[in-house]
Amino acid sequence: MSQYVSRLRSRPHGQFPGPSRLRLPGVPRRPRRVAMLSVHTSPLHQPGTGDAGGMNVYIVELARKLAALNIEVEIFTRATTGTLPPAVELAPGVLVRHVDAGPYEGLAKEELPAQLCAFTHGVMQAWAGHRPGYYDLVHSHYWLSGHVGWLAAERWGVPLVHAMHTMAKVKNAALAVGDTPEPAARVIGETQIVRAADRLIANTAEESDELVRHYEADPGKVAVVHPGVNLERFRPLAPGGADADDGGVAASRAAARARLGLPQDAVIPLFAGRIQPLKAPDILLRATAALLDEDPSLRSRLVVPVVGGPSGSGLTKPEGLQKLAARLGIADLVQFRPPVGQERLADWYRAASVLVMPSYSESFGLVAIEAQACGTPVVAAAVGGLPVAVRDGISGFLVAGHDPADYARALRRFVADPELSARMGHEAARHAQSFGWDTAAAATGDVYTAAMQERRRHLRSLHG
Amino acid sequence: MSQYVSRLRSRPHGQFPGPSRLRLPGVPRRPRRVAMLSVHTSPLHQPGTGDAGGMNVYIVELARKLAALNIEVEIFTRATTGTLPPAVELAPGVLVRHVDAGPYEGLAKEELPAQLCAFTHGVMQAWAGHRPGYYDLVHSHYWLSGHVGWLAAERWGVPLVHAMHTMAKVKNAALAVGDTPEPAARVIGETQIVRAADRLIANTAEESDELVRHYEADPGKVAVVHPGVNLERFRPLAPGGADADDGGVAASRAAARARLGLPQDAVIPLFAGRIQPLKAPDILLRATAALLDEDPSLRSRLVVPVVGGPSGSGLTKPEGLQKLAARLGIADLVQFRPPVGQERLADWYRAASVLVMPSYSESFGLVAIEAQACGTPVVAAAVGGLPVAVRDGISGFLVAGHDPADYARALRRFVADPELSARMGHEAARHAQSFGWDTAAAATGDVYTAAMQERRRHLRSLHG
């Protein structure tokens, strides 16, 4: 049983309602069933492709753990293929509902605003077959879903909890060269949803500040819930080596390298994520070139994997990155790999000496936690949630700004000290333990409960 | 009392429900109150500017006449200024409701799809204060409103009647040089609303065909209702001259020219409408130049007024048209006038020898009826509804294609026969009488009644 439930049970003046759904007066009620909205990206999609990224992982893991807390989750997403049934069980207590709204293929994210009424209509149809009060709460992800959630929550008379994941004003304030600014329509849409939501879930304190600063969010409505990582999947995988000083990290690394066919003695700085200007994989390439400029003998000891596909909205194409590698004279060192499944991704994390995240903006930076959970330190730009995700000097290094020379300097420490990667990786794996999805789901459940409680209070005050 | 009501009263097996709202079984019920949706353009705006055109006039006149038939109308439109109250009475029985959805200014039509959920929310708020069944029917105009109507009709359990006004696929099939094709999002949105609506109102039989051909509309759902013109406003205005052979048209023309300071003996071909490639005002300029090429002596007898402003979506700027006039050597003949009010516009129609409409596409061509109602013949491209609006050889001339020489040939007949304009104008005014709003509103009311009847039948069949 999760810590969330036990915490509720131990409340001095409360009692957990239990499976009988008996409602005692004054006891905060958790939702039984949540309608989760993810219009533009399906939880069934492969992260690292197209528009599917950290948000997909977030929704899947959160839903699983909420279900484990007896909160059923139905995830509504736009149908992008005719081959899947209208409803698919993702896990016990987690249903994915495919909503018909526009053609399966060829609809870009920019064209989705025109489909929000159609999507809302599909959500209403799915709901119409149920008794009133079927959904206790709406939790929407990204502003497009937020607008659907606005209407759904109003119609069902339930609270709306919204998570932005990324924000146009934040993105636009830290735009990389070659990236297109987010349109005004999104800024307006986000502003409206901030006003309409009963609760906003921010990934980090910084995101919470941004909601207040950029979107005039009522600070009392914003709750910070650090997203979790799947700690069962992302962990060092050492054949009986967990007793070592480094928690088995070195053995885990060696095994992963063997599985991936990577050299055991190489320094391997890894980039993992969508290839787009915002994620700045080019900075890792330039930093590698800078390392080689100083010490050409490193050429035989460096492997630089770039794991990920192009993003729908990004301007940097993998070809462009390949050309850059050639221009920098490091084409032989850089390995471009298409997006991989979560299991395989964990192996790439384990195999790397260090994960490099030179991003211009990250609301949380889930991959930083995933890599650390696998026992891999992280060199990251000190933006967004990364200063929370990475313990500077302990589980990795934070770099101010985006000068490739600064990233080269951080990488040089791993070159100079072959043990550093395993030592820091051990700390990284420990640090990552506090970012599990049990914790995240329990905290999210608390936000739900608070939202429902406040709504009931509000209704009571209306009716005298 | 309107002809519609008396027609209902004379039904052998029916009885008009009357103001007591008594419902007799088997009697088709008309709606008492209609929610009319016009998201992107307000009925209070000046036609001929920005996005306001024939559709604004259509909605205002239809609403007035529906109200006269005891069908109350509430028109929902997006608030584009903070200076107007949330609800404004446009006429007895006609309320305009301003819905907050996005900023008042700076929101282009292309950005409106992202505001449809917000708009729907505003409509629901206005409705929430009323008893259930407050609106009997939703009538949406243009696809953007259609998507809101889809949700509103579903929520209220009432029929949705939709009017396209213009269609992306039709526009794209007849694109003028320099005009931007309509986006896929609109095509998809239109296709959805065609499927969702209980009834589609087409302006012409051709529009009805297009709905079936391009959008696979169920022919049984499409009703053709010719839009009306305001025959009280648009009519020949002759000081006691209605007894003349030409119905007073010549006297009306002379008086209007005096009011506008135009020469009495000039041949005056008029362009009236938004200045955009689709409306092709440039063809009138080129035809004028062709006339002069043949007979330079006409220069002293020609005046070419262009009345209208630039369109938000059009690429042809008035400056471009002015440059074209200069290049053609007719800058001295062309008078550019900004959009004018309906009263003043009627004077421009009356003053003209002929209205010229070289449009590439017109779903109905309301101005052709307005000009004829004022006693002015029309030379028009044989596209869209214009072959219905103009009786070829009687109330004007239809031209196949867009060759300026063909338009010059038609204009030459008015030059050669100074009486032709008044003779044809007299026929034109008679022809226009069948396009009054009384008729249009009564026919629209019939569509409402049919939609409500079918929905009741459908509900009865569901409940045994």
UniProtKB/TrEMBL annotation, chains A, B:
InterPro entries: Glyco_trans_1, Glyco_trans_4-like_N, Mycothiol_biosynthesis_MshA. Mg(2+) binds at Y349, R350, A352, T376. Gene3D superfamilies: Glycogen Phosphorylase B (3.40.50.2000). 1D-myo-inositol 3-phosphate binds at H40, D51, A52, G53, G54, M55, N56, K109, Y142, T166, R186. One of its GO terms (molecular function) is magnesium ion binding. Residues 254-429 form the Glycosyl transferase family domain. Keywords: Glycosyltransferase, Magnesium, Metal-binding, Transferase. GO terms for biological process: mycothiol biosynthetic process. Residues 53-228 form the Glycosyltransferase subfamily 4-like N-terminal domain. UDP-N-acetyl-alpha-D-glucosamine binds at Q46, P47, G54, R274, K279, V340, E362, E370. It is an enzyme of class 2 (transferase). It comes from the Bacteria. It catalyses: 1D-myo-inositol 3-phosphate + UDP-N-acetyl-alpha-D-glucosamine = 1D-myo-inositol 2-acetamido-2-deoxy-alpha-D-glucopyranoside 3-phosphate + UDP + H(+). Pfam families: Glyco_trans_4_4 (PF13579), Glycos_transf_1 (PF00534). The keyword Magnesium applies. Its EC number is 2.4.1.250. Catalyzes the transfer of a N-acetyl-glucosamine moiety to 1D-myo-inositol 3-phosphate to produce 1D-myo-inositol 2-acetamido-2-deoxy-glucopyranoside 3-phosphate in the mycothiol biosynthesis pathway. Belongs to the glycosyltransferase group 1 family. MshA subfamily. This is D-inositol-3-phosphate glycosyltransferase. It comes from Streptomyces chattanoogensis. The gene is mshA.
